Amino acid sequence: MPIVTDGSAWRQPDGVARQGAPGARSTSTTGTGQSPWWSDALGDPWRDPDAPSAVVIRPAAAPPPLEPDPTITAPGERRSLGMVFLVAVVTALLAGALGGTLGYVFATKGGAPGQTVLGAAGNGTPASLAVRPPDSLAGVASRVLPSVVTIKVGTDSGYSLGSGFIASSDGYVITNDHVVEGEKGQATVTFSDSTTVDAKVVGEDQESDVAVLKLSKSGLQPVQFGDSDQVAVGDPVLAIGSPLALANTVTSGIVSSLNRTIEADEPGGPTRYYSAIQTDAAINHGNSGGPLVDAGGRVIGMNSVIRSMASDADEAGNIGLAFAIPINQAKRIAQDIINNGKARRTVIGAELSNSYQNPNGGVEVTVVPSGGPAANAGIKPGDVLTRINNVPLEEPADLIALVRMYAPGQAVNVQYQRDGGPHTVQVTLAADSN
User: Fold this and answer.
1) What predicted TM-score, i.e. pTM, was given to this entire model?
2) Are residues 376 and 402 in the same domain?
3) pLDDT tens track for 392-419
4) Where is the PDZ domain (predicted)?
5) Residues taking part in catalysis
């Protein structure tokens, strides 16, 4: 148990340790019968409260008789006494005024002249009472926090805990699929003011790691969505959520990179693909599903994945490498789930080789189904795709992650190699048939 002390052991000149704060008052003696004060003050009542003391009144010596002065008349004597009285009154008033002035100065300026004064004088508003500018980090956090929730979902092994954000006033919440994956029983959502409501999982898309919940409450404050296509490296961001079950946690950082492709395999589970916004904002277990917001408080991503040096996922923690699903992608998938019960998956209409390797990068096309986007654009088996919208491709997972970031019907520029020569073609992506 922590012990807080106000004083320390000290020693008087006889070498005996005493307990208490130096300069503190004491009204008892030690077990030895000695005074707890300095030995050279044992007979001094002003320094040793235990020393005997008494007030002694000594009779005044009789003054010598005064001879009357015949030159002073009775009226003159009365005038002299009046003058004495007047001088005494004026002196008292001056002394009182001086004492009051000094008392005020001591009280307001910190004490007697030469005494140390802690802190600097200031006339500003105390920080606890000041209103933060809307565009400050504190101002952004205060606006977004009411729209961020902690999600708790029952599972076979206990419960899963993550974060989410309110996407509509009638109670839809967006989060990660891996937060609600394997849910068994009731899901609950806790707001920043600690109120809790029931929630139902509406739908989820495992490969893109997006899920939607519906709350049994309306009239909510939704987040403001930004445009993840306009995000730039170096932009300041805030990550908000419940890392390690610490609700309403806000961390800050910058956008470290864009279009960071990640393939995440879960033992016995789905393979997830991300073309992510990378950030150095501190993100840990429990942040999943929470928003990544820009300096204006607009959601630009959904925090989803971290990179760690730990081999065990349960021991992984923040090392400044975190990844968020771009909000344009997450919002589109969530809208599909709300409208259709499932999300459309965007495809390019080509199968790739898993064994192709080239020091210059690229992915080799092995099969091009007729009627698909790649076939319609003139791509053939044997072509090596090198870039999509100028983002380099190193392995097949890169192509899948980048294509899934776009909506069906969007056109992308594809650079590829054929017979040793570079080519560029525009491909209009499509939704898969499932």
Assistant:
1) 0.72
2) yes
3) 999 999 999 999 999 999 999 999 999 9
4) 337-420
5) 178, 209, 288
